[in-house]
Amino acid sequence: MASPSPTKPVRARPLVPADKDQAIACLLRNFPERDDAYWRRGWERLAARERFVDLPRFGHCLDSGGAIVGVLLMIYSTRGEGANATVVANLSSWCVDVPFRAFSGGLTAAATRSKSVLYLNISAAPHTWQGVEAQGYRLYNAGQHLFAPLLAKRAPGARARLFDANVAPSALADDERALLADHAKLGCKTFVVDCDGRSHAFATVEDRVLRGKIKCEQVVYCAGEETLRRFAGVIGRDLRLGLMIVDANGPIPGLPGIFIAGRSRKYAKGPVQPTLGDLAYTELTYFGRDPLTGL
């Protein structure tokens, strides 16, 4: 079905559950490489999430006389607790029908007006990089580091195990326990490393490199580069993981592998700097990655 022409007033507004079919139709028009099942699965996963107060569950759209002609999906989450908590919003699947491209700026402005939110764009296509940067986003990774955890040193006294939400709580922070439980439901590989009386959370999704020829695990959650470097060896040995890949700004010492400059560029705008290796509650976990394009 063709999109309407811009003969009626156009406005940006939050998406609501009743917009499901129209929003998916718009996404299919603009991302023909994705099928209907892909978008419906992602929409249902977003619908099942607990709604953040005063924040839209699905994101924003451009509405022209009741017809959806643009979509910007958004996935909200928080990092930290209490007064130190930061709201994070992953902007995903931004598209506008060709006759309405002049209104694209209004869609992004409506969706990203809060100065206290950390906005992430982790799948910007190459032809949009200049525009994304013009909107105030900054590139926060120079590429990705592909490594073999089996070849890394093992931390003395550390043990890695798969996460099980039904097992009595270990020495794992409440927010990380909830994060692992959520991502296990989304099909992510979730695991914990116990060491020196503390537990450290990790989550990955399947990825592929070298044009889809080699399988690896993309890190979507860890506390940071130092934590990953410290426990990569025990993760590789105890969980028998082959290759892993993580966002980085250069080769990571202690993780035997290669740095792939420019792969999977990611942008951020907001009050704090994102943590490399933290892609929890993003489109990678709710929708997945195209193994050929890397987007």
Q: How would you describe this structure in keywords?
A:
Aminopeptidase, 2 domains, alpha+beta, 295 residues, seven-stranded mixed sheet, disordered C terminus
Describe the structure.
By secondary structure, the protein is an alpha+beta fold. It has 2 domains: 10-138, Gcn5-related N-acetyltransferase (GNAT) (Aminopeptidase), CATH 3.40.630; 143-263, Aminopeptidase. The protein is built from 7 helices and 14 strands. The chain has helices spanning 20-30, 36-47, 104-111, 129-134, 174-185, 225-239, 283-286; strands spanning 10-14, 59-64, 67-79, 86-96, 118-121, 138-139, 143-147, 159-162, 189-195, 198-209, 214-221, 244-248, 257-261, 267-269. The chain has a 7-stranded mixed beta sheet. Strands 8-9-10-11-12-7-13 form a 7-stranded mixed beta sheet, sandwiched between helices. Residues 290-295 have low confidence and may be disordered.
Largest sheet, spatial ordering of strands: 1-2-3-4-5-14-6
Shape descriptor reads globular
Which sequence of SSEs, written as H and E, runs from N to C? EHHEEEHEHEEEHEEEHEEEH
Distance between the ends: 26 Å
- Counted up, domains total 2
Helix content: 10-25%
Write down the CATH topology of the largest domain. Aminopeptidase
Summed up, what is this model?
The chain has helices at 20-30, 36-47, 104-111, 129-134, 174-185, 225-239, 283-286; strands spanning 10-14, 59-64, 67-79, 86-96, 118-121, 138-139, 143-147, 159-162, 189-195, 198-209, 214-221, 244-248, 257-261, 267-269. With 295 residues, the protein is α+β, with helices and mostly antiparallel strands. Strands 1-2-3-4-5-14-6 form a seven-stranded mixed sheet.
